[in-house]
Amino acid sequence: MESYKKEFIQFMVESKVLKFGEFTLKSGRKSPFFMNAGGYVTGSQLKRLGEYYAKAIHDTYGDDFDVLFGPAYKGIPLAVVTAMAYSELYGKEVRYCSDRKEEKDHGADKGSFLGSKLQDGDRVIMIEDVTTSGKSMEETVPKVKGAADVDIVGLMVSLNRMEVGKGGKKCALDEVKELYGFDTAAIVTMEEVVECLYNQGYHGEIIIDDTLKAAIDTYYEQYGVK
Fold first, then answer.
1. How far is CA 161 from the centre of its chain?
2. I need a labelling partner for 110 at 20 to 30 A (CA). Which of 119, 131, 166, 202 fits?
3. pLDDT tens digits, residue range 84-143?
4. CA–CA separation, 119 and 226 (whole Å)
5. Which residues are catalytic?
6. Nearest-angstrom CA–CA distance, 167 and 162
7. Residue 38, SS3?
8. Phi, psi of 76 (to 5 degrees)
């Protein structure tokens, strides 16, 4: 596992973005873990977050893209901090764009988008926190495709939960890939999280002990991708 992935897993834990316990998800599933990217709130956290996204995008998709698109609302800061990090780490200027939940009908920046305008020929990478059902792609891909003749290169999320999506057979990222025809990837998978944290001491405590590991295994027996 790449060193930045291990650092990112520890970063999620120390930022209290990745939590373990008992959680009821929006889907109604009872999960032993929960991830909320809204927990990144300080300047230093956001700077590091952008760097991890930039490294994962660079490793996965290379430099042949023009725009980072972050679906509203959580995708907006993700696109901004990642564009900044990409410039700093790789010396490449990429534009950011996000959609508005409600179209702005006045001012010089009226319309359905924030940031850079999408242009014909743009190569776009979508960026999100976590995809569990693919619903946000269902809403935003038509917006992006309808704005200009663009090529969506792929999607990058922070964590692949590795559980079945709406179809009940494939994970949400694979469903998105199959439905829209572009690649999907994550900075880390839940399998890598468990590998990194199981029975490993971190700041004097074991994050995933045998009891929690058993609960995670049981969860994946029911909801994991076969």
1. 11
2. 131
3. 999 999 999 999 999 986 665 544 455 578 999 999 999 999 999 987 666 778 888 999
4. 40
5. 104, 106
6. 14
7. helix
8. -65, -55
